[in-house]
Structure to design on (178 residues):
């Protein structure tokens, strides 16, 4: 299965990170196909989310992930983990997939970050949980933003830009409009 990979992370032992690409029919890789290829990729199971454009992030040990094969997907927009064998999966079209990893600690995160989730605080929640669940602070993390739709294809109105700017106040992030 072809994956777009973030090259600086290629040499990290045990880390498999990538973004699947559309096939000839213009469709992404189905979860069923991905699930079937888990052993070849070195995983036991995948953590799939029912993405709701909110701020909820779960750790791999959260009871809401249920049992393998249960067919239930928790309502959340991010997953964190530290043990081998679990593939964190986020889906994105016009939203941004955000990948986190601890520089020293073996901890990772996959976050679905659309504008609604960013305004709701999904990135802050992922960072908070990295600290609470795994003792890793934001300054100890590396972040990779996956591919997303471009401004020519998906125009953002002033109302959305204003909401993002308001959500970013006090974070040290500057958002410009116009």
């Amino acid at each position: 299965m072809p994956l777009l990979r973030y090259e600086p992370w290629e040499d990290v032992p045990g880390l498999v990170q990538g973004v699947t690409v559309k096939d000839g029919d213009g469709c992404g890789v189905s979860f069923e196909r991905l699930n079937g290829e888990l052993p070849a990729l070195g995983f036991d199971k995948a953590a799939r989310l029912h993405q709701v454009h909110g701020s909820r992030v779960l750790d791999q040990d959260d009871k809401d992930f249920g049992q393998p094969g249960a067919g239930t997907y928790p309502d959340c927009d991010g997953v964190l983990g530290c043990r081998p064998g679990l593939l964190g999966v986020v889906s994105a079209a016009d939203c941004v997939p955000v990948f986190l990893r601890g520089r020293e600690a073996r901890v990772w995160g996959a976050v679905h970050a659309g504008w609604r989730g960013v305004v709701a605080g999904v990135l802050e929640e992922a960072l908070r949980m990295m600290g609470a669940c795994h003792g890793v602070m934001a300054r100890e993390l590396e972040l990779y933003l996956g591919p997303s739709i471009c401004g020519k294809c998906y125009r953002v109105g002033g109302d959305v830009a204003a909401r993002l700017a308001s959500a970013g106040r006090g974070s040290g992030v500057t958002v410009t409009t116009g």
The chain has a mean pLDDT of 83. The helical segments are 31-36, 38-41, 115-120, 122-134, 158-167.
